[in-house]
Backbone:
């Protein structure tokens, strides 16, 4: 009853109060691309904010607004709500003319402009008095029954369709393609293919298959298309410090921190989505450096397309956990861009969110201050607050020829998705021998080692000094470390003939490194310690024999250098020879 009365007197209220309506303001809080999501957001605000309204904006968008208020009061309230963090930072004042029909509160009807109570118009006073007592309403001004919803005839539908612009027509084709009824070009031309797909969609959704969508049917098609974004909270975010403006899924991410050159928006739900805004001053060298650095981060998986241009780049990456997309561009001495990180297996929502972000991306003049950093403790594993990609295992290896072939521990390169040398050069296993624990790697591009192994001929003397070169700490240090010890036996503890026993305290990262005599000749390769089983003293280590290494190399078609004992090198010379041949071997997922 009350709803019908409001509908009947709405025109009188707005027309008679037109002179004062411009003295009224609303606080525009946010806009949503679907009615369902807008109702959810209005329901979220209502418990802690007064005067919550929901209005249609047109074009499929819906507004959440507070009011109506006196403009001065509205401005003061807006400042207070912003300061308290109760409304988004980009909230602003809006006029009543900015809004169309009211959908929230549900059943409340058109909004009443309180200032119109001061208007001297008699008819307006009567209408407002009827708000207090509907019995006073003029029967001529009321409609006792709601007007039925009448859909359009095909002729009327074609007429309303003719008023669509090209972008709106293309959007309908996109929605039809998404629904599975259209597979031709998105051109905004409603030819035979488009008409046929419209008819198929109508039939599938219980409408008469005319091939011409009515206004209501177009709204339903777009509602279905946009339903996938429900809960994403897509809204335009303006980041003033970074100078980036674009739509972001604020229903699933929230601002976290500034960590130059990034603005971090971390996950706010268990979906696990994240967004980075990129903003830094720089030139082409800076852009190219960022391109390389981004690929060292865990948020950019190795599998994916990469494109670097003179004024920008695009990086995509995917693994079993996440899919990420990064794009950045150089313009006017500033690098601006973004990264979207999304859980794997949710491609429909990810691509829709990404498309909205890309189409809305814009920049303003400010650039994030390079000194903008969080107060978190720095870590060698973090870069600008992001985890640097780490291999699942590291070991050592050594060059055996001028082409860059490497000998390493077979255990270190098992089940690797990718193998790198010195963290940069990709390599592949060309030979592996489980019995001796030896593997041979070949770089995908030819390398030029500083030095290569020369294997010692003859039987080494027991109790002679030996040294192992290796990346003991997994690449934390830029150069290999030297560990010294003695050759204890030419067999294992159980009499094994294929290993040598060393009195040398090695670390796991040393496995695969060369074992050298005092003259720099290679006696063998350090083997990894066995996990579990008997725990041996720290100073007990084992090495694969030089002759076994040469046999594996021969089967791989590689001829290794050999040498006789040449006496004793100065420690610094031995270190230089060992460092030149030793390489960091990394096994990645």
Residues:
């Amino acid at each position: 009853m009350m709803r019908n009365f409001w509908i009947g007197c709405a025109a009188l209220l707005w027309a008679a109060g037109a002179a004062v309506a411009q003295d009224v303001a609303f606080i525009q809080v946010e806009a949503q691309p679907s009615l369902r999501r807008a109702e959810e957001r209005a329901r979220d605000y209502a418990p802690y904010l007064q005067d919550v309204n929901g209005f249609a904006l047109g074009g499929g968008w819906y507004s959440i607004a507070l009011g109506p208020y006196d403009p001065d009061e509205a401005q003061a309230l807006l400042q207070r709500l912003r300061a308290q963090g109760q409304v988004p930072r980009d909230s602003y004042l809006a006029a009543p003319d900015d809004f169309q029909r009211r959908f929230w509160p549900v059943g409340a009807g058109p909004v009443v402009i309180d200032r119109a109570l001061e208007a001297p118009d008699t008819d307006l006073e009567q209408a407002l008095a009827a708000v207090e007592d509907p019995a006073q309403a003029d029967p001529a001004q009321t409609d006792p029954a709601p007007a039925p919803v009448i859909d359009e005839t095909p002729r009327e539908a074609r007429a309303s369709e003719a008023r669509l612009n090209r972008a709106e027509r293309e959007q309908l084709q996109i929605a039809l393609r998404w629904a599975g009824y259209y597979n031709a070009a998105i051109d905004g031309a409603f030819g035979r293919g488009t008409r046929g797909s419209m008819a198929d969609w109508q039939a599938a959704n219980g409408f008469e298959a005319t091939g011409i969508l009515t206004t209501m049917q177009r709204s339903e098609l777009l509602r279905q298309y946009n339903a996938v974004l429900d809960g994403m909270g897509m809204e335009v975010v303006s980041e003033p410090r970074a100078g980036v403006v674009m739509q972001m899924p604020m229903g699933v991410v929230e601002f976290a921190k500034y960590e130059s050159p990034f603005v971090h928006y971390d996950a706010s739900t268990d979906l696990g989505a994240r967004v980075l805004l990129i903003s830094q001053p720089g030139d082409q060298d800076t852009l190219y450096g960022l391109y390389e650095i981004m690929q060292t981060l865990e948020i950019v998986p190795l599998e994916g397309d990469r494109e670097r241009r003179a004024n920008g780049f695009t990086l995509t990456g995917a693994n079993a956990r996440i899919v990420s997309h990064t794009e950045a561009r150089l313009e006017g001495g500033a690098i601006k861009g973004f990264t979207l990180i999304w859980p794997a297996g949710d491609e429909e929502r990810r691509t829709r969110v990404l498309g909205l972000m890309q189409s809305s991306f814009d920049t303003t003049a400010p650039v994030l201050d390079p000194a903008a950093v969080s107060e978190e403790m720095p870590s060698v594993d973090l870069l600008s607050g992001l985890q640097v990609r780490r291999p699942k295992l590291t070991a050592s290896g050594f060059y055996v020829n001028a082409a860059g072939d490497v000998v390493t521990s077979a255990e270190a390169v098992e089940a690797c998705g990718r193998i790198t040398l010195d963290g940069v050069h990709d390599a592949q296993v060309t030979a592996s021998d489980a019995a001796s624990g030896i593997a041979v790697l070949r770089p995908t591009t030819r390398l030029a080692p500083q030095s290569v192994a020369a294997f010692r001929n003859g039987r080494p003397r027991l109790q002679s000094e030996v040294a192992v070169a290796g990346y003991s700490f997994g690449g934390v240090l830029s150069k290999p470390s030297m560990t010294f010890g003695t050759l204890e036996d030419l067999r294992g503890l159980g009499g094994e003939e294929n290993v040598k026993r060393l009195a040398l305290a090695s670390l796991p990262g040393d496995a695969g490194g060369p074992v050298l005599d005092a003259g720099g000749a290679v006696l063998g390769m350090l083997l990894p310690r066995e996990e579990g089983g008997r725990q041996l003293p720290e100073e007990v280590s084992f090495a694969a024999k030089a002759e076994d290494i040469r046999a594996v190399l021969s089967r791989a078609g590689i001829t290794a250098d050999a040498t006789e004992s040449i006496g004793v090198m100065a420690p610094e010379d031995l270190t230089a020879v060992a460092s030149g041949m030793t390489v960091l071997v990394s096994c990645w997922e």
Notes: Residues 431 and 556 are 6 Å apart (CA to CA). Residues 1-21, 114-150, 377-382 have pLDDT under 50 and may be disordered.
